[in-house]
Design brief:
Helix content: over 70%
Shape: globular
Strand content: under 5%
Number of helices: 14
Largest sheet: none
Distance between the termini: 37 Å
Number of strands: 0
Radius of gyration: 24 Å
Mean pLDDT: 79
Structural class: mainly alpha
Oligomer: single chain
Low-confidence stretches: none
Order of helices and strands: HHHHHHHHHHHHHH
């Protein structure tokens, strides 16, 4: 009887504690987002750090080398953003006027199809700008930029701490969740291997997708190929949703810029084929069975972490899910949850 009461009490405490825990994650997102990002980045560079260690490099020099690599990657990204910005700013007035008129036609068609009514004679642009409160939210742009910069600086700071082993994730596992030292080493090795594989494959697949869409834009005469390639690369990190958003937005832009001809149709088919090739064929092949997570779990995690942390949460939702699945597999009481998350569950049955 006492054991049953204890189990019931523990279950009730868990039900109460979980919402509080996730509320704290949401409130302290400015700490947890860079911390998790830094963990994934540090994992990516751990093999390189071990190589430096085998070569008897001083730890300070090894960490400096990794930081320079990260800063170099940020610099390349910044240069690509500059190129895409110059691309957009160099567009002539005739193109902008034509694109604006075409977008207006599409909005009017959509209003007629959906039965949306506006006050007669009202300006279309002002109507929707006021509805979206865009004029009142100019300050959010500055907040976004400052938040992005602070997140980037905190991420680099946490990466340095993790690589310097000031924060030891394996020891943290050993003292909190996995009590046996051998088990914690084994589990950490699996987490490291799987997450490094995920990050590398995702980077390569996203880069291939971005290059493919950029080349398709260039070949079919769609303006701003660097911008659309960069957009496809970034948005592709959001599992499932990113590929749809990339294809739809690029296709709509092509439709606005050009008339609804066969060229636009072939362009849409080409960028769809690029997404299917990299996201639907190559990514699952390279990921393997370790990342076999069913669609329901992916969608739930996307919505959940998107609600908690916004776009960064959506980007990190799948690595977090992979980590949770590995942890659930280690205990009998949670192994059933890991089985339900597995994409091969139906096949196994």
């Amino acid at each position: 009887m006492m054991m049953d009461r204890l189990k019931t009490t523990n279950a009730l405490l868990l039900i109460i504690a979980l919402p509080i825990f996730f509320y704290v994650l949401k409130i302290l997102s400015f700490i947890f987002i860079p911390l998790l990002l830094s963990m994934f980045i540090a994992l990516l560079f751990l093999p390189l750090m071990r190589w430096f260690q085998n070569k008897k490099w001083p730890k300070s020099l090894s960490i400096l080398s990794v930081i320079l690599l990260i800063v170099g990657g940020i610099k390349i990204g910044g240069e690509l953003i500059k190129l895409s910005s110059r691309e957009i700013l160099s567009a002539d007035a005739d193109f902008l006027s034509k694109a604006t008129n075409k977008l207006l036609e599409l909005i009017l068609m959509a209003e007629g199809f959906l039965g949306i009514e506006r006050v007669e004679g009202s300006n279309v642009w002002l109507h929707y700008i006021n509805d979206l409160h865009l004029l009142n939210d100019v300050g959010t742009t500055f907040n976004f930029i400052s938040n992005a910069l602070s997140t980037m600086l905190m991420t680099i700071f946490f990466v340095v701490l993790l690589l310097a082993e000031s924060i030891n994730f394996q020891k943290l596992l050993n003292t909190t969740i996995i009590k046996h030292n051998y088990s914690s080493i084994k589990i950490f090795a699996k987490i490291e291997k799987d997450l490094i594989k995920f990050i590398v494959v995702k980077l390569l697949v996203s880069a291939g997708t971005g290059i493919g869409i950029g080349l398709a834009c260039h070949f079919f005469g769609v303006s701003f190929p660097i911008f659309w390639g960069l957009f496809a690369f970034v948005i592709n990190f959001i599992q499932m949703i990113g590929s749809f958003v990339s294809v739809i937005t690029t296709s709509l832009f092509a439709l606005i810029e050009h008339d609804a001809t066969g060229m636009v149709l072939f362009f849409v088919l080409t960028i769809t084929a690029v997404q299917v090739l990299f996201g639907g064929i190559l990514e699952p092949i390279f990921m393997g069975k370790s990342f076999s997570i069913n669609i329901v779990t992916i969608l739930v995690m996307l919505m959940f972490w998107g609600y908690i942390w916004g776009i960064p949460g959506m980007i990190m939702s799948i690595p977090i899910t992979v980590f949770l699945k590995i942890m659930f597999e280690q205990f009998k009481s949670t192994r059933m949850i890991a089985t339900l998350m597995d994409g091969n569950t139906a096949g196994k049955r």
